[in-house]
Amino acid sequence: MATVLSVSGSPSASSRTNRLLRHLDDRLVAQGHEVTPLDVRTIPAEALLGADFRHPAIVGATELFARADGVVVGTPVYKASYSGVLKALLDLLPQYALAGKTVLPLATGGSTAHVLAIDYALRPVLSSMGAAHIVQGWFTLDKDITVRDDGSLAVAAPADQALSQVVDRFSAALGRTPVLAAAG
Ligand SMILES: Cc1cc2nc3c(=O)[nH]c(=O)nc-3n(C[C@H](O)[C@H](O)[C@H](O)COP(=O)(O)O)c2cc1C
């Protein structure tokens, strides 16, 4: 069993990214992992925008990263990249906050034109933070994510299958990650 931190990087109160991550958390829990959700939008704006490293919410988030064996990082695609609030949080974490960790990058977006945003924008940042293993990520179109009347989530068939596969690969990679000492 591994400890997983599941970070949703959307500022939206009705975030599809957030819903999707919480849906995928259930799959990881069913596989025996302990999953802690972290929604960046719940961190006070003054802490994020004022670069207040000592704010309890930032200290708490830093501890969650430190404790995790694996981290799911989900973001909406905004302006062909990941969200600003996600970057604001990542900027306040220690330089090698992902050292020794397995990371699953996920994105939701409105257009397949930006399907590669995970690879050209998010992955280099995760790598610079020392991630030991960044597994294959997945981009999900927002139109494939539906919230049913009862509040549950439905993901359109091909996307659902692909997401299950990347989550299962991430799950399998947890525990196989070599522990690398943080450089510097
Ligand atoms: C300000 C803004 C910028 C966006 N820019 C893009 C974009 O460049 N490419 C894209 O594919 N989708 C873009 N979208 C669509 C969102 O990525 C998509 O609807 C996503 O699922 C929203 O996730 P959320 O509900 O978690 O915030 C944008 C949406 C907003 C609100």
Automatic annotation (TrEMBL):
<dbReference type="InterPro" id="IPR020048">
    <property type="entry name" value="NADPH-dep_FMN_reduc_SsuE"/>
</dbReference>
<dbReference type="InterPro" id="IPR005025">
    <property type="entry name" value="FMN_Rdtase-like_dom"/>
</dbReference>
<dbReference type="InterPro" id="IPR029039">
    <property type="entry name" value="Flavoprotein-like_sf"/>
</dbReference>
<dbReference type="InterPro" id="IPR051814">
    <property type="entry name" value="NAD(P)H-dep_FMN_reductase"/>
</dbReference>
<feature type="domain" description="NADPH-dependent FMN reductase-like">
    <location>
        <begin position="3"/>
        <end position="144"/>
    </location>
</feature>
<keyword id="KW-0560">Oxidoreductase</keyword>
<dbReference type="GO" id="GO:0008752">
    <property type="term" value="F:FMN reductase [NAD(P)H] activity"/>
</dbReference>
<protein>
    <submittedName>
        <fullName>FMN reductase (NADPH)</fullName>
    </submittedName>
</protein>
<keyword id="KW-0288">FMN</keyword>
<dbReference type="GO" id="GO:0046306">
    <property type="term" value="P:alkanesulfonate catabolic process"/>
</dbReference>
<keyword id="KW-0285">Flavoprotein</keyword>
<dbReference type="Pfam" id="PF03358">
    <property type="entry name" value="FMN_red"/>
</dbReference>
